[in-house]
Amino acid sequence: MVTPTLELTSPIWHEINNTLCFNYAKVDDATTPTNDFNHTPDTGDVVLTALAMLKTLDVLFLNRDDVVSLLSYADCIPLMETAMRSVSGGQAQQPIRTSLQIPESTRVLGVMPGYVQSPETFGVKVVSVFPDNFGTSYGSHQGLVTLYDAHNGAPYALIDGGAITAIRTAATTAAATKHLARENAECLTILGYGEQAATHVQAIKEICAIERIKIWGRSIEKAQAFARLQEETHSLSVEAVESAEDAISTADIVCTTTGASTPIVSGDWLPNGVHVNLIGSSVATMREIDNAGLKKAKFYCDYKASLEVLGGEYLHALADGAITEDHLVGEVGQVILGTCPGRETQDEITMFKSLGMVSEDLLAAQYVYEKAIARGVGQQLSM
After folding, report:
1. What is the DSSP string of 290-334?
2. Cβ atoms 96, 111 nearer than 8 A
3. Which domains, and CATH codes, for the chain?
């Protein structure tokens, strides 16, 4: 390890010398008068003394199992409503996600800092998105959420970001569906059969009286295996179908959870009254539905600033002249606040584009942290 050094002739030294000279006298074996403000001790003295004055930080670490045990969908859905309401109401700060893509791949590292005013939460999520991890022992989303004290900047929690992302993404979809889908929705269609497909079944069941589920994926064998597992888990009728069109044609709610880079859904397949959640694509170069599908729908997003940079379906439709910018009705947070219309008829098609917001991660992480403290869960780390 390289020891940090301080240039003793720099302005920084002159700024701290008065504050710390009494301590420097101590480390110099009291050979220097405590009121000698021109004293310049050795670099090592400065470093050791400055570090000795810093408070030891206690950080709570929560792993994936901790998060899953503490964060239910029933609890997370109202948290996501709060997050969307805070963003649309100007009570949160969150820059557009910064990402680094590994060349010639779909593997991405994203960095998402943010601040929510109430409940006051401040932190950052760093997450890797590796779609090719499907079928391996690694999740597609892996990372950490770090929470910081908004008043002194000290970190106080380090939480598994993969579990937070998986649960809050599905919970956000459920919150949007609650406000946009028909109240009597019974048939759910899931495109995809990975982790997000499973979490979305769980989350949607929390807000709708789902009676049957259809599953489609590029591999009918994998779709059938996933359908059997979901049927056993939820005691519902779950059917794997060979055609995405067949899966969608009778649906009340559709969730696309794939890594598709080109459309897998045609607007011609959308039945009247359906609500569609676009979840799988999170970069401008990917899209799960064609221009016709987007044009037919009453279109909403989670965060307009992100949509205008990362929303692949929206950006493609704009570039092709299929829609104009005013095709976006608004953010779901605006619907929750009552400043933007939601569903107005039983027959209209509604659509939600989810790109994910760090405000969602932070509120979910803060909730998990507080619950962990109350229950004595997690591992305390000293820094």
Report:
1. -HHHHHHSEEEES-HHHHHHH-HHHHHHHHTTSS-GGGEEEEHHH
2. no
3. 11-52 (no CATH), 58-165+360-382 (3.30.1780.10), 182-355 (3.40.50.720)
Cα-based distances in Å from 178 to 123, 131, 203, 247: 28, 28, 11, 21
Tokens of 158: 């380090």
CA 50 – CA 281 distance, rounded (Å): 47
pLDDT tens digits, the chain, 383 residues: what are they?
Answer: 444 444 444 444 444 444 444 343 334 444 444 444 455 556 666 656 666 677 788 999 999 999 999 999 999 999 999 999 999 999 999 999 998 989 988 888 999 999 999 999 999 999 998 888 877 889 888 999 999 999 999 999 999 999 999 999 999 999 999 999 999 999 999 999 999 999 999 999 999 999 999 999 999 999 999 999 999 999 999 999 999 999 999 999 999 999 899 999 999 999 999 999 999 988 899 999 999 999 999 999 999 999 999 999 999 999 999 999 999 999 999 999 999 999 999 999 999 999 999 999 999 999 999 999 999 999 999 98
